[in-house]
Each structure stands twice: as C-alpha cells, then as structure tokens.
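ARCHIVE RECORD
Type: protein–small molecule complex
Small molecule: iron/sulfur cluster
Source of inputs: curated submission
Record status: active
Notes field left blank by submitter.
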Amino acid sequence: MPQAFISHCTEDSEFAQQIASGLASSGVEVWIAPDSIRPGEEFVDAIQRGLSTTTHFVLVMSPDAFESPWVKLEMNTAIRLEREGQLLISPILYRDCKPPLLLGSYQWISYGGDSTSIVKRLIASIAPSEAPPSARRWWEPRMLTDDQASAIQQGLDEVGAETSICKLCPLSNERTIAVPGAGVTGAQVMLIGEAPGPEDDKTGMPFVSAAGQFLDELLGLISIPHNSVFMTNIVKCRPNKNRDPESYEIKACSDYLDRQIALIEPKVIVTLGAHALNRIAPGHKLSSDHGQPLSVDGRIVFPMYHPAAALYRSRYRNILIKDFIDMDRYLAGQPVA
Ligand code: URA
Ligand code: SF4
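STRUCTURE (tokenized, with ligand):
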C-alpha cells in the first residue's frame, strides 16, 4: 500500500488535513501530525517512525513552513532518504511561497485555491491505478497502414487548401492566413477550440498562442505528447480584435470541421470553451457539464473550459487541471475521485 508522510507547519493544518483525507480516501496510508503520534510517543520519535516507513513525502511549503524547524528537519531527512531510494518527494507551494533552494529543481505543485486538484495530482503520482498499460495509454494514435494514413492526409490537405482561399464568411477579410488545424492522422483525440489566436493567424498553426501553451501543459500533466493529438477550431480564420465568432460564421465553416472529424474518426473529442461545445453538442451547458463525458454520435465528448480563461482567472486553471486529470482517469478505466 502506498504511504504518504505529510509535512506541514501548524499554521497550515487545515489544508494539510484536507490533503490527508483526500489521499486516505484513495487508499493511501497517511502519516500526519498530530493524529499519527502515538500516546506517550515523543514528537521527534514519531517523525522518525513515519519517515522510515513512508514511500512518499508530501511537503506543504508556505512562508510559515519555511521558518519551521520541524519542517526543516523533516525535509532534510526526506532529502537524504530520497537519495537512498527510500521515498519520493512531492512538494506543494502553498500561500505564495518560493521553493527552498535545496528543492529548487523539483517539480512543484502550486496551490491555486482548490485542494481537490492538488489531491488528484498527488494521487496520480502516489497511487496510480493498476489498470493495464494499454488502458492507461488510451490516447495513443491508431496504427494505420501507409495507404490509410495517406488517404486521411490527402483529405486533410484538401481541407487545408480550401480554407486557405475560402471566402464563405466575412472572416476571410479578417484573417492573415487560415488555420485549418494540425496533428497526427491516426489521432484518437481531437481538441476543438474556438478560433485561431494571434500567433496562430500569423503561423497557420493552431494553439501556438499563450492559451495553446497552457493547453500543452494540461496535456503534459496527463502525459499526452502534443504530437499525438489533432487540434483544430470551429472556425478556421481569426476574427479581428479577439471577438467571438458569429453563429453564421460558425455555420459557414462547419463543413470543414465535419470533414476533419469524418477523416480522423477520433475516439474522443475535447471541446474547449462554450462555442466549441455548442457546435459539437448543442444543448449542453459548460457550467454544469464541464469535465463530464458526453456521448455524441457514438463518440466520447469531454466539454472543457477554454484554456484562455485560465490565463486570467486561477479558478478556471484549477477546474481545467481537475477536469483533464478526471478525463484521463475515466478513459484509462481508473476510479475518478
Ligand atoms: N488558438 C486556437 O487555435 N484556438 C483557440 O481557441 C485559441 C487559440
Ligand atoms: Fe471560410 Fe471558415 Fe474562414 Fe469563414 S472562417 S472564411 S468559412 S474558412
């Protein structure tokens, strides 16, 4: 059974307890002060006992923890035990704190106001489910024969060529160049956004703007390589001044997206933002359906908030992180917390 020692200072007890109960409910055996100290046991002995058996060391680092001699002692012991291969360290940055130099090179998890997303990320590394490796790699592109791959590529190239000279809607006057979409021919996962961003409009590639970088981080979080999916948008040309695309523009552009979906036949469609959801699964609401699998035309559709929303509001950032992790667990056949 995986074990986690939760290192925290008294000021952060409430947050540390939330993490402890989240981990415990996923089958992780938790050591946390003061609950895990046996009657009559000295604090320092209890710490040594906890650290000597644990497989994971979860560090809640905050400005107060930074000053705590106990946290320092626990951290230094954990660093030594990690070097000896006894445990792994998962550090969390809580309440605007900088990482201590000793752990500067670690992958820190930043708290953004939502402890459930922290718990999910910890569980993903502390207690990965026993699902077979094939299920865990649900996103892996289909193996295609050369003929299949070139037939799909030809269809995608046709869509690309047509969009580059398309004048079916007023966005043709606003674009620099059309952004038809990009990705691997055998993609099982298609991500559908709203419209090309400013950099996308100049390069012809989707999701290279700031929102796209965050999208890449979300994919990285669930170990999906950027080059194993297909990314596109409901309109292929960028509206001026970041305005939303009009419904008649979305309609004018719909045939291109329909053809791309028919060519690629993705198992999973991830819609990003309300417009994309409305285009793929009309009648659904992002506020109530985000992160929940829908069945649409025999495909699994996951409605997600748009990654651009997360650039301005950390609430959306946390929701997106949670929803991507939940989606991964769901599709890998693992229990979703
Ligand atoms: N880039 C895209 O390609 N689509 C979006 O929705 C946002 C940025
Ligand atoms: Fe054509 Fe779509 Fe561009 Fe409109 S947005 S001009 S329909 S490619």
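CURATOR ANNOTATION: The chain has a mean pLDDT of 92.
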